[in-house]
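Q: Hi! First time doing this. I have a protein sequence and I read that you can turn it into a structure. Is that right? Here it is:
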Amino acid sequence: MVSRAARAQTPISTQSVTEADRTTLRQVTPVFFGHIKKHFARHLSAAEARTVTGAMNRVLAAGGGRAEAPNVAESVERLRESTQDD
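A: Yes, that's right. Below is the predicted 3D structure, encoded as structure tokens:
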């Protein structure tokens, strides 16, 4: 899902997400989150979800990344709460 283009004068490559990649991501996201809910989130309390989220954000930050959502802990809680209907 990621396009890579090597630069001619350096071994560094760049990556970009294409519109086709975005379309694919939009299509698979509901299935992905459905499995997260079914196999993971519904087994955690809100406090546990916050702990896991915090730990994963630290791992992500250590690798130079950043959280995708503005408030990941809130997103995890919403995901967890939505499993109560299942």
